[in-house]
From TrEMBL:
Gene3D superfamilies: P-loop containing nucleotide triphosphate hydrolases (3.40.50.300). Residues 4-231 form the ABC transporter domain. GO terms for molecular function: ATP binding. Belongs to the ABC transporter superfamily. The lineage of its organism: Bacteria, Pseudomonadati, Bacteroidota, Bacteroidia, Bacteroidales. It holds the Pfam family ABC_tran. This is ATP-binding cassette domain-containing protein. Keywords: ATP-binding, Nodulation, Nucleotide-binding, Transport.
Length: 306
């Protein structure tokens, strides 16, 4: 069942069409990525989902029904522009925002403390927000978004401003929230995170949805027939009837490792059996394109077509 259905949505801002007949479905229980270059329209869509603005055309359904004001109580929204009250203490701030989402004081306090501990911020609970570093403040805002344990979480650029260690921590928490039953939709420029955590995605370019579907299926659809081959022998024969060598791994301790492109019509089975006949084959692995490569290829193609 779809928790969100975006149907043919159009959003205009004084002469600029930010969303041009965009449709997408987010299945309940999934992690969904919203991708696109700067200015593509991601935040415009997220703001419609959060009822900060309305579509000019089309509609958005939540659990099969048109969005209603009370729905925001069951959502958690991390906006792109972060904002906390600097003079408030960290714990009081999270409790205050949890209470606004209908939590009792005790529940909000307990959940806030659990989260602060999990995010390594417990010792900051009674410090003022203004004393936090930028990354710590971002973590606090993340906690404030999830503290009421909403069924639907919408994050706009959740990884922006985080160092690699905190990015990993955040990814882990997003996966844990999803395991515990929350559906998650987030916009990001971090393509590695899309490969690691998203099941499905929509790529928006210049206000239109230009690519959408399952991450793994789309990576397979864009595959270029590239394989990594590792043999024990010091050299691999250059281009032949089976493959052409795309690149060789430099300074390998033992053997030879190369990225090869199989020739048209050559099956994986043929390639493996031929390599096995001529070499001590240590490794043979298909290389799927990264989401980064797919993003660049799709955006470039779509810009050329318009
Ligand atoms: N309130 C507004 N008034 C006028 N134009 C707007 C408004 N909000 C967004 N836009 C315009 O709509 C377009 C889409 O903006 P949006 O913020 O949705 O993009 P985005 O995909 O989230 O970009 P980024 O990755 O840079 O955050 C941009 O050209 C932006 O300038």
């Amino acid at each position: 069942m779809n928790i969100i259905e975006v149907k043919d949505v159009v959003k205009d801002y004084s002469g600029h069409r930010a969303l041009d007949h965009v449709s997408l479905n987010v299945e309940e229980g999934t992690i969904y990525g919203l991708l696109g270059p700067n200015g593509a329209g991601k935040t415009s869509l997220i703001r419609i989902l959060n009822q900060i603005t309305r579509p000019d055309e089309g509609e958005v359904l939540l659990n099969g029904k048109p969005l209603a004001p009370s729905d925001v109580m069951h959502m958690g929204y991390l906006p792109e522009e972060r904002g906390l009250y600097k003079k408030m203490k960290v714990l009081s701030h999270i409790v205050y925002l949890g209470r606004l989402k209908g939590m009792s004081k005790n529940d909000a306090h307990r959940a806030a403390m659990e989260w602060l501990e999990r995010m390594d911020l417990a010792e900051w609970a009674n410090k003022k927000v203004e004393a936090l570093s930028k990354g710590m403040a971002q973590k606090v805002q993340f906690i404030a978004t999830v503290v009421h344990n909403p069924k639907l979480l919408i994050f706009d650029e959740p990884f922006s401003g985080f160092d690699p260690v905190n990015t990993e921590q955040l990814k882990k928490e997003i996966l844990r929230l999803n395991d515990n039953g929350s559906t998650i939709l987030f916009s990001t420029h971090n393509m590695a995170s899309v490969e690691e955590v998203c099941k499905e995605f929509t790529l928006i370019n210049k206000s239109r949805a230009v690519l959408q579907g399952n991450v793994y299926d789309i990576r397979r659809r864009f595959k270029k027939n590239l394989f990594r081959v590792h043999v024990a022998e010091p050299v691999l024969a250059p281009d032949n009837a089976l493959y052409s060598i795309v690149s060789l791994s430099p300074r390998l301790q033992s053997g030879c490792e190369a990225t090869v492109k199989l020739n048209q019509g050559v099956s994986t089975r043929d390639a493996i059996s031929n390599l096995n006949g001529n070499y001590t084959l240590l490794g043979f692995e298909e290389l799927l394109p990264s989401m980064n490569e797919i993003f660049i290829e799709t955006v470039t193609d779509s810009n050329e077509q318009r």
